Amino acid sequence: MKSTSLISLSVFLILLITQTACNNEHQYDINTTDKYEKSKVSLTETEQKYPLKFLSVRGQKKKNLFGQIVVKGTIYNNAKMVSYKDVDVKLSFYSKTGALLEEDNNVVYETISPGGSKTFKSKFFTPKGTDSVAFKIERAKY
Q: What is the pTM of this model?
């Protein structure tokens, strides 16, 4: 009778310990998933609020036969979660001495996925003596 009681008590304790361990592990998974989801939301909010921190642009220029400056550029989206669209690129045209001659804006009406890029091409009649072009992203929508 005592041995049956002891065995029952042992089985009960083993089941209790196993159940407690399983419940704690499950709670940990829920908390970890919850923290991950919150960090994703926080990252998304940051990327939406500060698009200029996640977008960059590079490009070059050349002159065509009609005397126009042909500008080719690429916009890069370094965000992890947010796609951007309607990116406004400011083009500044400079002389050999670094004097600002003219500024123009070029809006790229494309959607750029996270980690992606888009190319653009524009033609401008710029002032005589234009030597270089600087690119700067002014704004973008998400």
A: 0.69
